[in-house]
Amino acid sequence: MSDQPHSAEWFGEQRDFWWNRDFLDLMAKRWKLAAASSLADIGCGLGHWSRLLYPYLLQPARIVGVDREPRWVAEAPQHFRRAFPNVAPELSSFHLADATSLPLADNSFDVVTCQTVLMHLAQPLDALREMFRILRPGGLLVCVEPNNLWNYLSFTSLTEAESVEALVRRFEFWLRQHRGRIAAGRGNHSIGDLLPGYFAQLGLGEIGVHQADRPASLFPPYATAAQQALVKQTSQWKESATGPWDKEDLRRLVLLGGGTEPFFESVFAGLMEGFQREQKAITLGNFHSAGGSINYLVSARKP
To answer: Where are the beta strands (DSSP E) in 30-85?
Structure first.
């Protein structure tokens, strides 16, 4: 595994293209963010998510970020100040802490949110309880989490005619990796499916479920900035065996999920061969995929 801070591989240029602005405009209206003047971003990283939400808040708004990685806590304030140079310094702060033990007061925020954080936690309900605790009565909880297994069921121009056996075998690989992550205490990468039930379990009300409207689409001539960033990031991961393509990490997780060494080596070799075909098809301008993905925005209010 990489020695970089947690999630470092995901903070590349492609991160800037996760959201369409008009979709966020719509969600801000649905969530009534214009009536909120304080927001806590849990597992904030560099603050990508909270920087997107901040302009929708009732100004002057207070923002607090929390992350367990010292590097992100040190760098996030710089990113926030560059984005909002006119915001008073005392209105933003960033703290080093775990999501399951927040150094924040009870009932102190109008909005508490996280993006792709619960999927990494062995005990996501503990983090949700902490978010519930710091949320004011009537306040809004928003969690953005995926079903990542769905990505491996979507077709591309290279896979839509593959045999049933090949498709099932490849999905088994990723399902075993998924189960291995859970067994290793590294979280459920498809936790988004479970969030509405978790919210209900905590006693939250007005539960709403929406899906993000920006899949990772690729089609000729690959001309948009988002597509170019996606091709660049995916190629870097696969060529350097980092991020989701770290071979030894994948091996460990697939085996923890019940796979065998021969199974792992065979399927991984096929995945790498498929990557080469994909790169060639992109170069020739005939690769395409709608980029199937499921990314949930689950929201609720504290009674």
So the answer is: 38-42, 62-67
User: What is the Rg, in whole angstroms, of the alpha carbon atoms belonging to the chain?
Assistant: 20
Among residues 129, 141, 62, 64, the alpha carbon closest in space to that of 97 is found at 64
| SS3 of residue 251 by DSSP | helix
Q: Domain-by-domain residue ranges, the chain? A: 8-301
Which CATH code fits 8-301?
Answer: 3.40.50.150
Distance CA 194, CA 10 (A): 23
Q: What is the pTM of this model?
A: 0.92
Decide the pairing of beta strands 109-115 and 38-42.
Answer: parallel
Q: How far is CA 275 from the centre of its chain?
A: 23
Let me know if 184 is exposed, middle or buried by CB neighbors in 10 A (0-12, 13-18, 19+): middle
For residue 117, the tally of other CB atoms under 10 A from its CB is: 27
Q: Which of 105, 92, 106 has the alpha carbon at shortest distance from 41?
A: 92
**Nearest to residue 43, comparing CAs of 62, 25, 69, 66?**
66
Are the beta carbons of 51 and 75 closer than 8 angstroms? Answer: no
Give, for all 303 residues of the chain, the pLDDT tens digit. Answer: 445 555 555 555 666 788 999 999 999 999 999 999 999 999 999 999 999 999 999 999 999 999 999 999 999 999 999 999 999 999 999 999 999 999 999 999 999 999 999 999 999 999 999 999 999 999 999 999 999 999 888 999 999 999 999 999 999 999 999 999 999 999 999 999 999 999 999 999 999 999 999 888 999 999 998 888 888 877 776 677 666 778 999 999 999 999 999 999 999 999 999 989 999 999 999 999 998 889 999 999 999
CB atoms inside a 10 Å sphere around CB 58: 12
Strand partners for 135 = 109
